[in-house]
Amino acid sequence: MASLVERMQVVAIAGTGLIGGSFGLALRAAGFQGEILGISSPSSIEKAIHHGAIDRGATLAEAAGRADLLYLAQPVGRILAVIRELPRILGERALVTDVGSTKQIIVDAARKYLPPGSFIGGHPMAGKESRGVDNAGKDLFRGRTYVLTPLRPEDIEDARVQDLLEWIRRIGAREVIMGSEEHDYRVAYGSHLPQLASTALAATLSQTETLTGPGARSTTRLALSAFDIWRDILATNAEPITEALTAYIQELEHIRENLRTRAIEEEFERGAAFARGLE
Amino acid sequence: MASLVERMQVVAIAGTGLIGGSFGLALRAAGFQGEILGISSPSSIEKAIHHGAIDRGATLAEAAGRADLLYLAQPVGRILAVIRELPRILGERALVTDVGSTKQIIVDAARKYLPPGSFIGGHPMAGKESRGVDNAGKDLFRGRTYVLTPLRPEDIEDARVQDLLEWIRRIGAREVIMGSEEHDYRVAYGSHLPQLASTALAATLSQTETLTGPGARSTTRLALSAFDIWRDILATNAEPITEALTAYIQELEHIRENLRTRAIEEEFERGAAFARGLE
Q1: Cβ B120 vs Cβ B148: under 8 Å
Q2: Which ipTM value was assigned to this complex?
Q3: Looking at beta carbons, which residues of chain A come within 8 Å of B187?
Q4: Does the N-terminal or the C-terminal CB of chain A have fewer CB atoms within 10 Å?
Q5: What is the pLDDT along chain B (279 residues), one digit of tens a residue?
Q6: Strand bridging mode A119-124 / A145-150
């Protein structure tokens, strides 16, 4: 496997924030010896170099021409814009992947604009409510699920994708391969719904005088997440999210109607069993 | 103030779990020199002694007869049952307080069964989803709000209540005095709603295949809370909780209808501002 991995010599990370910066730090910590380029604003590049997440800055054109792996770690809307720019500048040997939280719209754009076999969608199930390379860390992906959504099943067999898979394992993540539609449905429940539940809770509590304990803090922490990332996610996965919100509202209505009945115990047991599974 | 506080020589804690055990540990750490009795099952008493939270076990009758402070740290239903037992056994100098998450029903029971001036409702806004004296700690109350709900305004001036207040400050909590009705309304939003939001979220996610990240974990952790404590809370504060759930459901519906509009940004900003305030 080592010989395979050595083929990846130049990695370019577009968007050197929390996820992109952590990817650079994790690659280095896992033994990556090649060059790591960063594509971002001058101030972000400076910070990312300072933290050791990248070696130097580059333009998208230079990076796309030279990179073995082009890693798009930006908000969904920016990822879509970059994919549309790539046909003119992408080098022949480059594999492009991204970290966007919605995959179908990105995979569709890649299918339309990029050469077959040059793109695989990605979504590391890592992150936190704080952002920027200052919050990045080499262990952000450790123990986390890393979803890959190939455009065609055979893309997984591609040597460059196998290289990427090997590095995903080396940085401590567990890869899961699935279709983009299935991914989007599952994250609507498992990731987008928790965000909106937390935001809605905090917004509700902000409208009245409350007495809060530690529980309010832990359940509303996610509401600190940056909106400019979520704007794109909500707009590009609206249908599955609507379904997830409806299921959640129905559950809350069921609880509201059963505050004094035994039926509520079942919901607590179900919820506790699920939460224990995530521990 | 020291002379006041020294009047409190015997503290009896009924229910030596997370809150009761932590109160004993916190008193000791804050310099309490008197005796700490525990009222609980033999196995809980043994564990509480082992952790240093109490000195020895006692029957409710002995404890109520001897204690300067009788601290009821049980589920709401048990607190109500104990209050009904106290008229036959409570010593003349004892001040009774409790830690129940709903106050109006408890204050009403105290008004009915106990001598005027012998009871003040309490609610430390501390706790966690894990329970038992094994999870107790001397710092559980540090930096937390500690609500006191007097039956009559003048009860606050009582020397025994002033002693209790001094110890509440010494264990690092901040007292807040308010009426039981206002308390129950405010905790319905600030404490009971976050619990139900988390339980409902976990119960919803348990019903489908999901891809979860760190956000799902932080927002569903509260769903691990023990139901036997929450059964009593939900049953005794059902009206304010119903109102809070309705406000939350309306907020979620508003978000669901605005996933692709600018209105969603305002909810994120409002939510983030609230969450920042709890940091």
Answers
A1: yes
A2: 0.92
A3: 210-211
A4: C
A5: 445 556 899 999 999 999 999 999 999 999 999 999 999 999 999 999 999 999 999 999 999 999 999 999 999 999 999 999 999 999 998 999 999 999 999 999 999 999 999 999 999 999 887 889 999 999 999 999 999 999 999 999 999 999 999 999 999 999 999 999 999 999 999 999 999 999 999 999 999 999 999 999 999 999 999 898 899 999 999 999 999 999 999 999 999 999 999 999 999 999 999 999 998
A6: antiparallel
